[in-house]
Design brief:
By secondary structure, the chain is an all-alpha fold. It is built from three helices and no strands. Helix content is 66%, strand content 0%. It is elongated, with a radius of gyration of 19 Å. InterPro entries: Ribosomal_bS21, Ribosomal_bS21_sf. Keywords: Ribonucleoprotein, Ribosomal protein.
Length: 65
């Protein structure tokens, strides 16, 4: 449960913006999407390895964003 501390004089738009930021940081939506379908552990591991290799190539300067 997300709790937003808001002052009485604070605008509702600011409070909504704070709520959206907290919701994104909590990664609830990402977990929900992950649970919609099962992914085998071997596929998860392969994706992690490919992502790490991609990041390594960017860091070394071989690939530019």
């Amino acid at each position: 449960m997300l709790i937003i501390d808001s002052k009485d004089c604070e605008n509702i738009d600011k409070a909504l913006k704070k709520y959206k930021k907290k919701f994104e940081k909590s990664k609830v939506l990402l977990q929900l999407r992950e649970r919609q379908s099962f992914t085998k552990p071997s596929i998860k591991r392969r994706q992690e390895v490919l992502k790490a290799a991609y990041k390594q190539q960017i860091a070394s300067g071989k690939i530019e964003k």
